[in-house]
Protein 1
Amino acid sequence: MTTLVKELLSTFDILPESERLEIAVEILKRVTNLDFPPLSDDDLVWNAEELFL
Protein backbone atom coordinates (compact mmCIF):
# COMPACT_ATOMS: atom_id res chain seq x y z
CA MET A 1 0.00 0.00 0.00
CA THR A 2 1.44 3.36 -0.96
CA THR A 3 1.98 6.21 1.48
CA LEU A 4 -0.71 8.25 -0.26
CA VAL A 5 -3.27 5.48 0.14
CA LYS A 6 -2.33 5.05 3.82
CA GLU A 7 -2.77 8.80 4.38
CA LEU A 8 -6.13 8.76 2.62
CA LEU A 9 -7.35 5.87 4.78
CA SER A 10 -6.10 7.55 7.96
CA THR A 11 -7.96 10.71 7.04
CA PHE A 12 -11.06 8.67 6.22
CA ASP A 13 -10.90 6.96 9.64
CA ILE A 14 -11.02 10.25 11.56
CA LEU A 15 -14.02 11.65 9.68
CA PRO A 16 -17.48 11.66 11.25
CA GLU A 17 -19.60 8.64 10.30
CA SER A 18 -21.89 10.68 8.03
CA GLU A 19 -18.93 11.86 5.93
CA ARG A 20 -17.39 8.36 5.82
CA LEU A 21 -20.71 7.04 4.48
CA GLU A 22 -20.85 9.83 1.87
CA ILE A 23 -17.34 9.03 0.67
CA ALA A 24 -18.02 5.28 0.64
CA VAL A 25 -21.08 5.79 -1.56
CA GLU A 26 -19.11 7.93 -4.01
CA ILE A 27 -16.26 5.40 -4.19
CA LEU A 28 -18.69 2.53 -4.75
CA LYS A 29 -20.35 4.45 -7.58
CA ARG A 30 -16.98 4.91 -9.26
CA VAL A 31 -15.72 1.35 -8.90
CA THR A 32 -18.86 -0.27 -10.29
CA ASN A 33 -17.67 0.73 -13.77
CA LEU A 34 -14.21 -0.81 -13.41
CA ASP A 35 -13.47 -4.07 -15.19
CA PHE A 36 -12.17 -6.37 -12.45
CA PRO A 37 -10.71 -9.74 -13.42
CA PRO A 38 -12.43 -12.76 -11.88
CA LEU A 39 -11.07 -13.80 -8.48
CA SER A 40 -9.19 -17.08 -8.21
CA ASP A 41 -10.14 -19.69 -5.63
CA ASP A 42 -7.04 -18.68 -3.63
CA ASP A 43 -8.15 -15.02 -3.67
CA LEU A 44 -11.62 -15.99 -2.47
CA VAL A 45 -10.21 -18.14 0.35
CA TRP A 46 -7.78 -15.41 1.42
CA ASN A 47 -10.57 -12.81 1.51
CA ALA A 48 -12.85 -15.13 3.47
CA GLU A 49 -10.09 -15.78 6.00
CA GLU A 50 -9.45 -12.06 6.39
CA LEU A 51 -13.13 -11.40 7.02
CA PHE A 52 -13.61 -14.13 9.59
CA LEU A 53 -10.33 -13.96 11.50
Protein 2
Amino acid sequence: MSGVGKSALLAELSARGFSTVDTDYGPYTEVVGGERLWREDVMAELLASSGSLFVSGTVRNQVRFRRFVLTWCC
Protein backbone atom coordinates (compact mmCIF):
# COMPACT_ATOMS: atom_id res chain seq x y z
CA MET A 1 0.00 0.00 0.00
CA SER A 2 3.00 2.27 -0.14
CA GLY A 3 2.60 5.21 -2.51
CA VAL A 4 -1.16 5.01 -2.99
CA GLY A 5 -1.85 8.51 -1.66
CA LYS A 6 -2.71 7.97 2.00
CA SER A 7 -0.67 10.97 3.17
CA ALA A 8 -2.05 13.20 0.40
CA LEU A 9 -5.60 12.21 1.33
CA LEU A 10 -5.00 12.93 5.02
CA ALA A 11 -3.50 16.33 4.15
CA GLU A 12 -6.56 17.23 2.07
CA LEU A 13 -8.99 16.05 4.76
CA SER A 14 -7.07 18.01 7.39
CA ALA A 15 -7.12 21.12 5.18
CA ARG A 16 -10.91 20.76 5.02
CA GLY A 17 -11.14 20.74 8.81
CA PHE A 18 -11.36 17.02 9.56
CA SER A 19 -9.38 15.37 12.37
CA THR A 20 -6.68 13.09 10.98
CA VAL A 21 -3.89 10.86 12.30
CA ASP A 22 -1.08 9.34 10.25
CA THR A 23 0.15 6.36 12.25
CA ASP A 24 3.45 6.34 10.36
CA TYR A 25 4.53 9.15 12.69
CA GLY A 26 4.34 9.58 16.43
CA PRO A 27 3.82 7.05 19.21
CA TYR A 28 1.46 4.74 17.33
CA THR A 29 3.81 1.91 16.35
CA GLU A 30 6.49 -0.30 17.81
CA VAL A 31 8.78 -2.91 16.31
CA VAL A 32 8.09 -6.44 17.55
CA GLY A 33 10.18 -9.28 16.20
CA GLY A 34 11.39 -7.06 13.37
CA GLU A 35 7.84 -6.12 12.32
CA ARG A 36 6.26 -2.68 12.73
CA LEU A 37 2.91 -3.03 14.54
CA TRP A 38 0.42 -0.64 16.08
CA ARG A 39 0.81 -0.16 19.81
CA GLU A 40 -2.58 -1.47 20.78
CA ASP A 41 -2.77 0.48 24.04
CA VAL A 42 -2.06 3.77 22.26
CA MET A 43 -4.47 3.06 19.39
CA ALA A 44 -7.26 2.00 21.76
CA GLU A 45 -6.84 5.24 23.70
CA LEU A 46 -6.75 7.32 20.51
CA LEU A 47 -9.92 5.77 19.14
CA ALA A 48 -11.76 5.92 22.46
CA SER A 49 -11.05 9.61 22.95
CA SER A 50 -11.93 10.83 19.47
CA GLY A 51 -15.18 11.53 17.73
CA SER A 52 -14.98 11.51 13.96
CA LEU A 53 -11.41 10.71 12.98
CA PHE A 54 -9.62 9.66 9.78
CA VAL A 55 -6.71 7.31 10.47
CA SER A 56 -4.11 6.16 7.97
CA GLY A 57 -1.62 3.36 8.30
CA THR A 58 -1.06 -0.21 7.28
CA VAL A 59 0.15 -2.78 9.77
CA ARG A 60 -0.73 -6.42 10.29
CA ASN A 61 -2.49 -5.95 13.64
CA GLN A 62 -4.87 -3.25 12.42
CA VAL A 63 -7.56 -5.94 12.14
CA ARG A 64 -7.83 -5.88 15.93
CA PHE A 65 -9.59 -2.53 15.62
CA ARG A 66 -12.88 -3.41 13.98
CA ARG A 67 -14.21 0.11 14.57
CA PHE A 68 -12.87 1.19 11.23
CA VAL A 69 -15.23 1.79 8.39
CA LEU A 70 -13.28 1.33 5.20
CA THR A 71 -14.49 2.84 1.97
CA TRP A 72 -12.80 2.03 -1.30
CA CYS A 73 -13.56 3.86 -4.45
CA CYS A 74 -12.62 3.70 -8.11
Protein 3
Amino acid sequence: MYVYLLTNPNRTVLYIGVTNNLPRRLEEHSNNLGNHGKFTGRYQANLLVYFELLPDPIQAIAREKELKGWSRAKKEKLIIGFNPNWEAIDLETWTGPANDS
Protein backbone atom coordinates (compact mmCIF):
# COMPACT_ATOMS: atom_id res chain seq x y z
CA MET A 1 0.00 0.00 0.00
CA TYR A 2 1.18 3.49 -0.81
CA VAL A 3 0.47 6.92 0.59
CA TYR A 4 1.46 9.60 -1.87
CA LEU A 5 1.50 13.36 -2.38
CA LEU A 6 0.90 15.08 -5.68
CA THR A 7 1.30 18.71 -6.62
CA ASN A 8 0.66 20.86 -9.65
CA PRO A 9 3.32 22.57 -11.83
CA ASN A 10 3.17 25.74 -9.69
CA ARG A 11 3.34 23.77 -6.41
CA THR A 12 0.32 25.64 -5.12
CA VAL A 13 -1.75 22.60 -4.16
CA LEU A 14 -1.06 19.30 -2.47
CA TYR A 15 -3.14 16.17 -2.85
CA ILE A 16 -2.73 13.19 -0.54
CA GLY A 17 -3.97 9.78 -1.54
CA VAL A 18 -3.66 6.09 -0.79
CA THR A 19 -3.54 3.18 -3.25
CA ASN A 20 -2.39 -0.38 -3.65
CA ASN A 21 -1.05 0.29 -7.17
CA LEU A 22 0.82 3.58 -7.45
CA PRO A 23 1.65 3.47 -11.19
CA ARG A 24 -1.99 2.75 -12.09
CA ARG A 25 -3.26 5.47 -9.76
CA LEU A 26 -0.85 8.06 -11.19
CA GLU A 27 -2.08 7.23 -14.68
CA GLU A 28 -5.67 7.71 -13.52
CA HIS A 29 -4.79 11.13 -12.10
CA SER A 30 -3.10 12.13 -15.36
CA ASN A 31 -6.12 10.98 -17.36
CA ASN A 32 -8.37 13.22 -15.23
CA LEU A 33 -6.47 16.46 -15.96
CA GLY A 34 -9.03 19.08 -16.88
CA ASN A 35 -11.87 17.11 -15.25
CA HIS A 36 -13.24 19.76 -12.91
CA GLY A 37 -15.24 17.15 -11.03
CA LYS A 38 -12.01 15.72 -9.62
CA PHE A 39 -9.68 17.68 -7.31
CA THR A 40 -6.56 16.58 -9.17
CA GLY A 41 -8.14 17.43 -12.53
CA ARG A 42 -9.39 20.83 -11.43
CA TYR A 43 -6.02 21.84 -9.97
CA GLN A 44 -3.79 19.97 -12.47
CA ALA A 45 -2.23 18.02 -9.59
CA ASN A 46 -0.58 15.02 -11.18
CA LEU A 47 3.10 15.41 -10.24
CA LEU A 48 4.26 12.83 -7.71
CA VAL A 49 6.62 14.45 -5.19
CA TYR A 50 6.44 12.04 -2.25
CA PHE A 51 5.36 8.50 -1.44
CA GLU A 52 5.60 5.92 1.32
CA LEU A 53 5.19 2.17 1.14
CA LEU A 54 3.15 0.73 4.01
CA PRO A 55 2.53 -2.93 4.85
CA ASP A 56 -1.27 -2.97 4.88
CA PRO A 57 -4.39 -0.91 4.15
CA ILE A 58 -5.13 -0.10 7.79
CA GLN A 59 -1.71 1.48 8.32
CA ALA A 60 -1.84 3.25 4.94
CA ILE A 61 -5.25 4.81 5.65
CA ALA A 62 -4.12 5.85 9.13
CA ARG A 63 -1.02 7.51 7.66
CA GLU A 64 -3.08 9.25 4.98
CA LYS A 65 -5.38 10.69 7.65
CA GLU A 66 -2.38 11.74 9.73
CA LEU A 67 -0.77 13.59 6.81
CA LYS A 68 -4.05 15.26 5.87
CA GLY A 69 -4.19 16.72 9.38
CA TRP A 70 -0.77 18.33 9.07
CA SER A 71 -0.15 21.97 8.24
CA ARG A 72 1.07 22.90 4.77
CA ALA A 73 4.47 23.80 6.27
CA LYS A 74 4.86 20.38 7.87
CA LYS A 75 3.90 18.63 4.61
CA GLU A 76 6.47 20.74 2.75
CA LYS A 77 9.19 19.71 5.23
CA LEU A 78 8.28 16.06 4.66
CA ILE A 79 8.53 16.48 0.89
CA ILE A 80 11.83 18.39 1.10
CA GLY A 81 13.36 15.66 3.28
CA PHE A 82 12.46 13.07 0.65
CA ASN A 83 12.66 15.09 -2.56
CA PRO A 84 14.54 18.38 -1.89
CA ASN A 85 13.86 19.94 -5.30
CA TRP A 86 10.24 18.83 -5.54
CA GLU A 87 11.09 17.07 -8.79
CA ALA A 88 8.29 15.05 -10.34
CA ILE A 89 9.12 11.44 -9.47
CA ASP A 90 9.19 8.99 -12.35
CA LEU A 91 8.71 5.59 -10.73
CA GLU A 92 10.65 3.85 -13.50
CA THR A 93 13.82 5.90 -12.91
CA TRP A 94 13.48 6.92 -9.24
CA THR A 95 16.54 5.88 -7.24
CA GLY A 96 15.23 6.96 -3.85
CA PRO A 97 15.54 9.94 -1.57
CA ALA A 98 18.61 12.12 -2.09
CA ASN A 99 20.06 11.22 1.30
CA ASP A 100 20.04 7.46 0.57
CA SER A 101 23.22 5.84 -0.67
Protein 4
Amino acid sequence: MQRLVLCSTAALLTLAACAPSTGPMAGGGARSDQNQCFRPDLVRNFTAPSDQTLYVRTVDADVFRIDTVGCRDLQGSLSIALEPLVGTSRLCVGDPAGLIARSPCRVRVGKKLTTDEIAALPSRDRP
Protein backbone atom coordinates (compact mmCIF):
# COMPACT_ATOMS: atom_id res chain seq x y z
CA MET A 1 0.00 0.00 0.00
CA GLN A 2 2.82 2.39 0.86
CA ARG A 3 4.41 1.67 -2.51
CA LEU A 4 1.14 2.50 -4.32
CA VAL A 5 0.85 5.85 -2.50
CA LEU A 6 4.47 6.67 -3.31
CA CYS A 7 3.97 5.86 -7.03
CA SER A 8 0.73 7.85 -7.14
CA THR A 9 2.39 10.85 -5.52
CA ALA A 10 5.30 10.67 -7.96
CA ALA A 11 2.90 10.50 -10.91
CA LEU A 12 0.93 13.51 -9.65
CA LEU A 13 4.10 15.54 -9.16
CA THR A 14 5.23 14.68 -12.68
CA LEU A 15 1.89 15.78 -14.14
CA ALA A 16 1.89 18.95 -12.07
CA ALA A 17 5.30 19.88 -13.43
CA CYS A 18 3.94 19.70 -16.98
CA ALA A 19 0.86 21.79 -16.27
CA PRO A 20 0.96 25.47 -17.28
CA SER A 21 1.34 27.80 -14.36
CA THR A 22 -0.37 31.18 -14.37
CA GLY A 23 0.45 32.40 -10.88
CA PRO A 24 2.74 35.31 -10.09
CA MET A 25 5.65 32.99 -9.36
CA ALA A 26 5.47 31.20 -12.72
CA GLY A 27 8.79 31.50 -14.49
CA GLY A 28 10.25 33.79 -11.85
CA GLY A 29 7.44 36.34 -12.03
CA ALA A 30 4.31 37.22 -13.97
CA ARG A 31 4.62 36.76 -17.70
CA SER A 32 5.31 40.17 -19.15
CA ASP A 33 5.49 38.96 -22.76
CA GLN A 34 1.69 38.64 -22.89
CA ASN A 35 1.59 42.43 -23.13
CA GLN A 36 4.38 42.39 -25.73
CA CYS A 37 2.23 40.60 -28.33
CA PHE A 38 -0.58 41.48 -30.68
CA ARG A 39 -2.81 39.80 -33.23
CA PRO A 40 -2.05 41.06 -36.75
CA ASP A 41 -5.71 40.83 -37.72
CA LEU A 42 -6.47 43.42 -35.00
CA VAL A 43 -4.15 46.13 -36.35
CA ARG A 44 -6.31 49.16 -37.02
CA ASN A 45 -3.80 51.73 -38.28
CA PHE A 46 -0.19 52.08 -39.42
CA THR A 47 2.40 54.62 -40.46
CA ALA A 48 5.69 54.18 -42.25
CA PRO A 49 8.09 57.05 -41.57
CA SER A 50 10.75 55.23 -43.64
CA ASP A 51 11.31 52.00 -45.54
CA GLN A 52 13.08 50.59 -42.46
CA THR A 53 10.43 51.38 -39.83
CA LEU A 54 6.72 50.76 -39.58
CA TYR A 55 4.48 51.57 -36.62
CA VAL A 56 1.21 49.70 -36.10
CA ARG A 57 -1.62 50.50 -33.68
CA THR A 58 -3.84 47.70 -32.42
CA VAL A 59 -7.48 47.87 -31.41
CA ASP A 60 -6.23 48.01 -27.80
CA ALA A 61 -4.38 51.28 -28.66
CA ASP A 62 -0.98 49.58 -28.28
CA VAL A 63 1.70 50.75 -30.70
CA PHE A 64 4.44 48.43 -31.95
CA ARG A 65 7.54 49.29 -33.96
CA ILE A 66 8.15 46.91 -36.84
CA ASP A 67 11.69 46.78 -38.24
CA THR A 68 11.77 46.05 -41.95
CA VAL A 69 14.41 44.59 -44.23
CA GLY A 70 14.25 45.02 -47.97
CA CYS A 71 10.88 46.73 -48.00
CA ARG A 72 10.39 49.40 -50.64
CA ASP A 73 8.00 52.33 -50.89
CA LEU A 74 6.25 51.70 -47.56
CA GLN A 75 5.33 55.38 -47.28
CA GLY A 76 3.13 55.02 -50.36
CA SER A 77 1.26 51.94 -49.11
CA LEU A 78 -2.44 52.36 -48.48
CA SER A 79 -2.82 49.01 -46.72
CA ILE A 80 -0.65 46.33 -45.20
CA ALA A 81 -0.96 42.77 -43.97
CA LEU A 82 1.32 41.12 -41.43
CA GLU A 83 1.67 37.35 -41.52
CA PRO A 84 3.36 35.45 -38.67
CA LEU A 85 6.00 33.04 -39.96
CA VAL A 86 5.78 30.62 -37.05
CA GLY A 87 2.18 29.48 -37.54
CA THR A 88 0.58 31.31 -34.61
CA SER A 89 -2.13 33.93 -34.60
CA ARG A 90 -0.02 36.40 -32.58
CA LEU A 91 3.15 38.38 -33.13
CA CYS A 92 5.41 39.12 -30.19
CA VAL A 93 8.46 41.34 -29.79
CA GLY A 94 11.35 39.69 -31.63
CA ASP A 95 9.15 37.57 -33.91
CA PRO A 96 9.80 37.51 -37.65
CA ALA A 97 6.87 38.05 -39.98
CA GLY A 98 5.98 38.60 -43.58
CA LEU A 99 4.70 42.00 -44.62
CA ILE A 100 2.51 42.46 -47.64
CA ALA A 101 2.40 46.06 -48.76
CA ARG A 102 3.19 47.22 -52.30
CA SER A 103 5.59 44.28 -52.43
CA PRO A 104 6.15 41.47 -49.94
CA CYS A 105 9.13 41.62 -47.57
CA ARG A 106 10.37 40.28 -44.25
CA VAL A 107 10.01 42.18 -40.99
CA ARG A 108 10.65 41.71 -37.27
CA VAL A 109 8.57 43.05 -34.39
CA GLY A 110 10.96 45.53 -32.78
CA LYS A 111 9.25 46.64 -29.58
CA LYS A 112 6.06 47.78 -27.96
CA LEU A 113 6.19 51.53 -27.40
CA THR A 114 5.40 53.06 -24.04
CA THR A 115 2.92 55.91 -23.72
CA ASP A 116 5.82 58.37 -23.45
CA GLU A 117 7.51 56.94 -26.55
CA ILE A 118 4.28 57.25 -28.52
CA ALA A 119 3.84 60.86 -27.40
CA ALA A 120 7.46 61.60 -28.39
CA LEU A 121 6.88 60.47 -31.99
CA PRO A 122 6.29 63.27 -34.47
CA SER A 123 2.54 63.51 -35.06
CA ARG A 124 2.94 62.48 -38.72
CA ASP A 125 4.63 59.23 -37.56
CA ARG A 126 1.99 58.23 -34.99
CA PRO A 127 -0.40 55.56 -36.22
